[in-house]
Amino acid sequence: MQKLVKGLHAFQKGYFARHRKLFESLATDGQRPETLFITCSDSRVMPDLITSAAPGDLFVVRNVGNVVPHPTLPGGTSAAIEYAVCVLGVENIVVCGHTQCGAVQAILDPASVGELPYVKQWLSQADAVKRVIDEKYGHLEGEARMTAAVEENVLSQIDNLREYDFVSERLDAGKLHLSAWVFHLGRGEVFDFDPEVGEFIRVRTA
Ligand SMILES: [Zn+2]
What we know:
six-stranded mixed sheet, Beta-carbonic Anhydrase, Chain A
């Protein structure tokens, strides 16, 4: 806890003091984020940090495994997606998975979370990913298999997003853009799915 309070102190004296006007205007005028960013709860993935986002830029939804539940399974994540799209009118939705994701490991090996009933049930929503990996990537092992699973998981969640009427309507109208990202932890790089080539391509930043 002491570490958190020390951090809060540093934030108030440093970042907040330098950006006081921004925080005041966000408090007065409300938020208008352009992007809904759906990612994993993993502490090593920091959406604002990796995109250099300012307060008010990203509407962030985090859960175990960056899962987008099917529209027939409402819950907190679905509510956040609905609010971001229908009320805030975000223009982009990014689903961002990451390498070394424990949730994806559990999707590949459900028995490993047999003693964690909530985790097991939550991740059972993504069991289609395991089938895809078993069918298409049987030749891969170790890290390559894991990365493929992380990528397939993100694509599967993008498919689920399209199932929401309010998402598909805005996609058809050209008012919304979906991105499938994978953050490579040890390299600080992001790979973005390019539908035209059917592969994840490293986002060029310079
Ligand atoms: Zn994760």
